[in-house]
C-alpha cells in the first residue's frame, strides 16, 4: 500500500518586499513668483496693455493643456503657475514658453516644485505580494517582475482619470510639500509594510469624508525635489483646507510620521481675468 501525501503549494523563501507599488500619471510643476509691481506701474499704460495681451493669449492656449494661475496670499509670493503635462520635457517646454513673454521680465522666481502625480497601492500591494509568493515566485525574479508589470498596467488603466486629471476649476488652491519622518526615534521606512498599509488606510478614510468639498491630488517627488511628496488641495471654500488638514493630523501616520514644508494658498485666476489681476484687483469668479 503506497503512502499518500497532502500536496502543499510551494512558497518563495525570500521575505516579502517592503516597497509599496505605485502608479504615476501627469508630470507636475509649481512655479512661485514675486511680481515686480513698482517696475510694472512705472510703464506707460499702452506698454502694460501690450504685455498683458501677449501673456493672456499664450495662457489661454496653455489652459486646455493643463496650466492654471493663482494669486497668492501672504508674503511668500504673488503668483503661482501650476502645470500638469505628459512628461518632464513638456513641463520644460511650458517653462520656456512663459520665459519668452515680456511679462516674464516682471516675474522674480522665488521657488518651484517638480513632481509626478502618484497613487500609492498599499492596499493591493500586500495582497499582490502574498499571491505571488503563494505561487512560489521569488521576489525580484524575472517572473515576479513580469507579474508586477501586469498588475501596474491594470491599475494604471483603472485609475487613469485620477492619474491624468484636469486641474479643478475651484476657487482656491492649497499646496504644500511633505515628508515621512526618518529620524532616530521614529522612521516610517523601517515599519513593516503591513503596518504602513494599516495606517495609510486609516489616513485615507479621513480624506474620503471630505469628498465633494475638496479635491486632493498627490504627487511624488522623491528624486525630483527636496521633499518626498507634494499635496494640492482644491476647493471653493478655503476653510475646508484647515478642517481637513487639522483632522488628518490626529491620524497616527500624520501625528507620528509626517513632516510638512511651507504652505501656499492661492486664488484661481483664469487667463481671461489676467488683466483684472495685473490691474491690482482680485480676479472675479468664472472664466468670462
In CATH, the architecture of the largest domain is 2-Layer Sandwich
At CATH level 3, the topology of the largest domain is Alpha-Beta Plaits
**Strand arrangement in the largest pleated sheet:** 1-3-2-9-5-7-6-4
The SSE string, one letter per element, is EHHEEHEHHHEHEEHHEEH
Number of strands: 9
Total separate domains: 2
How much strand? 15-25%
The N- to C-terminal Cα distance equals 89 Å
**Uncertain regions: pLDDT < 50 for 5+ in a row?**
1-12
What's the alpha carbon Rg, rounded to whole Å? Answer: 23 Å
Tell me what the structure shows:
- There is one protein chain.
- Strand 2 and strand 3 form a beta hairpin.
- The longest helix is centred in the N-terminal third of the chain and has 18 residues.
- The termini are far apart.
- The protein is elongated.
- Helices cover 37% and strands 25% of the residues.
- The chain is α+β, with helices and mostly antiparallel strands and 288 residues long.
- It contains ten helices and nine strands.
- The protein has an eight-stranded antiparallel β-barrel.
- It has two domains: 106 residues, Alpha-Beta Plaits, CATH 3.30.70; 113 residues, Alpha-Beta Plaits, CATH 3.30.70.
Briefly summarize what is shown.
The protein has ten helices and nine strands.
Give the topology.
Elements: E1 22-35, H1 37-41, H2 45-62, E2 67-72, E3 79-85, H3 88-99, E4 107-120, H4 122-134, H5 142-158, H6 160-163, E5 172-180, H7 193-208, E6 215-220, E7 229-235, H8 239-248, H9 252-257, E8 258-260, E9 264-268, H10 274-278
Antiparallel strand pairs: 1-3, 1-4, 2-3, 2-9, 4-6, 5-7, 5-8, 5-9, 6-7
Amino acid at each position: 500500500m503506497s503512502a499518500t501525501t497532502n500536496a502543499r503549494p510551494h512558497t518563495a523563501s525570500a521575505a516579502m518586499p517592503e516597497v509599496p507599488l505605485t502608479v504615476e500619471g501627469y508630470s507636475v510643476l509649481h512655479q512661485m513668483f514675486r511680481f515686480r509691481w513698482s517696475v510694472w506701474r512705472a510703464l506707460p499704460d499702452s506698454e502694460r496693455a501690450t504685455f498683458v495681451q501677449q501673456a493672456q493669449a499664450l495662457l489661454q492656449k496653455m489652459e486646455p493643456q493643463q496650466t492654471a494661475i493663482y494669486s497668492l496670499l501672504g508674503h511668500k509670493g504673488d503668483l503661482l503657475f501650476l502645470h500638469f503635462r505628459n512628461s518632464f520635457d513638456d513641463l520644460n517646454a511650458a517653462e520656456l514658453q512663459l520665459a519668452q513673454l515680456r511679462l516674464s521680465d516682471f516675474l522674480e522666481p522665488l521657488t518651484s516644485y517638480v513632481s509626478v502625480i502618484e497613487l500609492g497601492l498599499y492596499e493591493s500591494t500586500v495582497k499582490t505580494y502574498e499571491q505571488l509568493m503563494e505561487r512560489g515566485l521569488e521576489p525580484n525574479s524575472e517572473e515576479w517582475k513580469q507579474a508586477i508589470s501586469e498588475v501596474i498596467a491594470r491599475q494604471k488603466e483603472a485609475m487613469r482619470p485620477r492619474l491624468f486629471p484636469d486641474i479643478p476649476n475651484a476657487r482656491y488652491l492649497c499646496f504644500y510639500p511633505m515628508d515621512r519622518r526618518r529620524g532616530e526615534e521614529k522612521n516610517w521606512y523601517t515599519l513593516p509594510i503591513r503596518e504602513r498599509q494599516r495606517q495609510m488606510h486609516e489616513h485615507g478614510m479621513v480624506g474620503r469624508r471630505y469628498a465633494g468639498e475638496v479635491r486632493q491630488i498627490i504627487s511624488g517627488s522623491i528624486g525630483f525635489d527636496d521633499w518626498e511628496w507634494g499635496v494640492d488641495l482644491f476647493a471653493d471654500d478655503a476653510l475646508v483646507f484647515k478642517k481637513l488638514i487639522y483632522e488628518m493630523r490626529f491620524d497616527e501616520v500624520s501625528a507620528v510620521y509626517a513632516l510638512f514644508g511651507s504652505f501656499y494658498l492661492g486664488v484661481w485666476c483664469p487667463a481671461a481675468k489676467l488683466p483684472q489681476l495685473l490691474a491690482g484687483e482680485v480676479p472675479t469668479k468664472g472664466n468670462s
